[in-house]
Input
Amino acid sequence: METAHLAYQAIVLAASLLLLANTILNMLVLPTAGTVQNQPEPPADPADSAASVPDPPLISILVPARNEAASIGPCITSLLAQDHPRLQLLLLDDHSEDATRQEALAAGLPEAQILTGKPLPEGWAGKNWACHQLAEAADGDWLLFTDADTLHQSNSVSAALAIAKQENATLLSAWPRQVTRSWSEVVIIPLVYYLAGAFLPHIVQLLARRQSALLARLLPVSMLRKFGAANGQYMFFSRQGYRLVGGHASAPGHLVEDVALGQATIARSAEGGRLVNADGSHIVSCRMYTNWRELAEGFSKNLRPLFEGSDFQFCLAGLYQVVFQALPFLLLFVTEGTAFTLVAAQVAAICMARAILAIRLKTPLWVIPLHPFGVLLALWIGLRSWQKARTGTLTWKGRAYHHRGTDAT
Output
């Protein structure tokens, strides 16, 4: 029995060390928006004095908004202050029941740049439909979809363009600095970055950009798409890249549309899709939720739909979190000898991975000892999401969604 227990702890330690190694590798390959200068294109013929530098690309900034009166004003103010010379800023008022439109106008956005959302068609999720309408109205060579609760530095757009050009991206997703104030935000929201920064192998995304033909021979598309992800708070598409994946119309009812579009982009790497996830903490910040009720509702909407139609994958992920992420912290108090040493090493590896991500992405360090509490709380939200998905009671922004696989109606 003792031998089996030690073997089990050794396996958990190996998994923890592998996660730590992947975190370090991810941070090495993850670009940082704001550190690359956006240089103008040189003249076609430098010797020709009549040659001129081409105009910078037109970038359409697209903001879907439903009941965002509390945050839309500062967001619009920050977007109007961008240093990129050619911008089109459009906001879609998605049947808001508060003063969203009035606050946007007060922030200086002209009435002509505020679209009134059309009725939500059957089979569409609200945000997807709003983004689809915005894309249809946009004229830009690049499309930046950003949430109404984001705040942007003046170089937000120009920095994204510089990274996108450097990496030849068709979709650049910048991960903002998350502003967390209430206890639930501080405990739960950094776990999102832990999942994205520790569990997802970003090296595969790099290979998909630079060795797409080779990767296409090694991995079937169904497997390759599993390595894709994006953050809907900041999604910067080239017009061609958005069309390549079919835009938001490709997954009209998906309640986690950002991940779906990231997966669609990497899945089309052999056809020119180029997915880049970047550290956006220097150029954009976001406060996702302001209290426990909002947070629980928001993540309940997302967690079960994230796994699409697979109850097996959902349960397997939950089991992994219990055994490999929460249990080591609890076993510290009940093990001794060699087993204690192995468990302590597991906890150290998890904390080191959390610390690396916290320093890089500017989330609180002091919350790391609360990791097992956050994991267990997230599992409770996951079970709540599963129950709501099964009973068709997923809700967000006053709308109810019945989740079936990837769709919501």
The chain is about 50% helix and 15% strand. Residues 404-409 have pLDDT under 50 and may be disordered.
